């Protein structure tokens, strides 16, 4: 998921360089949403791992 957030961010940068403002704004919005979903799932997986008695990864 983090890969797709990075892909949309790169698309946004390229679109902004070429002057496609609407496409750039949409791609940045998608990248932000995907990044925060990734972040929430990562934190959730850490919490579940700790509650199950495992060590958090280093």
TrEMBL record:
Signal peptide start-end: none
NCBIfam families: PRK13682.1-1, PRK13682.1-3, PRK13682.1-4, PRK13682.2-4
GO-annotated cellular components: plasma membrane
Coiled-coil segments: none
Superkingdom of the organism of origin: Bacteria
The protein, known as: UPF0391 membrane protein HH303_00045
Family assignment from sequence similarity: Belongs to the UPF0391 family.
InterPro entries: DUF1328 (IPR009760)
Pfam families membership: DUF1328
Transmembrane segments: 6-26, 33-51
UniProt KW keywords: Cell membrane, Membrane, Transmembrane, Transmembrane helix
